[in-house]
Amino acid sequence: MSDQSETTPTARSGRRDYQWTPARICLGGAIVAIAGFFIGYFVRNELLAIREGVNADRAYERLHRLAVREQSADFNLDNLRVDSEDIRFGGPQKDGIPALTDPEMVPVREASHLRDDDRVVGVEIGDRVAAYPIRALTYHEAVNDVIGGTPVLIVYCPLCDSVSVVDRRVDGAVHEFGISGLLYNSNVLLYDRTDDSLWSQLGFEAISGQNAGRALAHFGWTLTSFGQFRAEHPDAAVMTFNTGYKRDYERQPYDQDYFVTDQLIFPVNRRDGRLGTKVPVVGVRVGESARAYPVGTIRESPGGIVRDTVGGGEVVLHADAASGLIRVERTPDGAHVAHTFWFSWAAFHPGTEIYGE
Questions:
Q1: pLDDT at residue 51 tops 50
Q2: Minimal CA–CA distance to 177: which of 197, 163, 187, 191?
Q3: What is the 3-state secondary structure (H, E, C) of the chain?
Q4: Is the pTM above the cut of 0.90?
Q5: How far apart are the C-alpha atoms of 131 and 128, rounded to whole Å?
Q6: pLDDT the model gives residue 32
Q7: According to a count of CB atoms within 10 Å of the terminal CB, is the N or C end of the chain lower?
Q8: What is the four-CA torsion angle of 104, 317, 117, 185, rounded to 10 degrees?
């Protein structure tokens, strides 16, 4: 048995030691080089994309500022009360969003153009009551009208779901307002057709021109469904869709996700995290006192009614979850009041109090 040749462990297992030949070394080097090239190419492209993104942002900002300057040339910016860098160009030019004047109205019982669940802004002055559909206001944002002999302006800004109703008289003279196409704190800037001065809906004042710093008187309003409004005011009138403009009032021009997410299309000067970005509030300001009433808090109050005091005067608000109704029942003389999203109210009124907190 001793004359039989022995086998090595390598031979018994059938394996052979790997030999690094020049050809294999070249192949391995090529693989490493190719992998390095693709990794480097990917990283380079990512870095270029980041740089191009930054440059694109800078280019956009330069173009944006140029657009603001060009659009602002159409307006009277004397006595401007805000930083011009904070005024944004919204896209449409002056009157690109056409405000309405003396709109066609019909009795609510004849309003076949509206569904029961359509939101409307109701206004009651004296013995006259009128409603303005949000579906139309989304496309026009302001309506110059006369209710009960009083010249009024109904304002709605879709970007912050803001509703307000004001008296169009300044020192006894009746003014007519249009939409400037400019924004401040993601909120509409109106312009006075008398002198092209700018007015802020939620800032509650003119921000330029001879009336800079002056405010218009505010009226109470109701934001509710058309069905609820018709039941409460069967003899009221409602604005039609016969506006003189070709608009598809059946179509909502804003992505509905915008209203239920924290997304903002335009920047604001400040953010306040005490409430969710788009929590709906009724904001009331009397003099230097500002207070926000979350609509949910009003609804949860006994009878859906909140009674409070702001600036020494009584505030009474009513909200009903079933009908969607939100109503300003009473505010002190000289009060300014609007329905809006929390982000916009907080941007205009830093340090505002929140009812219930």
A1: no
A2: 191
A3: CCCCCCCCHHHHHCCCCCCCCHHHHHHHHHHHHHHHHHHHHHHHHHHHHHHHHHHHHHHHHHHHHHHHHHHHCCCECCCCCCCHHHEEECCCCCCCCCCEECCCEEEHHHCCCCCCCCEEEEEEECCEEEEEEHHHHHHHCEEEEEECCEEEEEEEECCCCEEEEEECEECCEECCEEEEEEEECCEEEEEECCCCEEEECCCCEECCCCCCCCCCCECCCEEEEHHHHHHHCCCCEEECCCCCCCCCCCCCCCCHHHHCCCCCCCCCCCCCCCCCCCCEEEEEEECCEEEEEEHHHHHHCHHHEEEEEECCEEEEEEEECCCCEEEEEECCCCCEEEEEEHHHHHHHCCCCEECCC
A4: no
A5: 10
A6: 62
A7: N
A8: 70
Burial 232-242 (b: 16+ CB within 10 A, else e): bbeebbbbbbe
Indicate whether 63 pLDDT > 80: no
Return mean pLDDT, the chain.
88
Residue reference for tokens 């779901």:
161
Query: Does pLDDT of 349 surpass 70?
Result: yes
Question: Where residue 200 falls among pLDDT bands split at 50, 70, 90?
Answer: very high
- Give the integer Cα–Cα distance in Å for 71 and 180: 8
Give the residues across from 151 on adjacent strands: 146
Q: What are the distances in angstroms from CA 183 to CA 203, 204, 268, 341?
A: 12, 14, 10, 16
Alpha carbon distance 44, 317 (integer Å): 59
Phi, psi of 191 (to 5 degrees): -130, 145
CA proximity to 315, closest of 299, 297, 336, 296: 336
* Averaged pLDDT, 239-268: 93
| Average pLDDT of the segment spanning 256-261 | 90
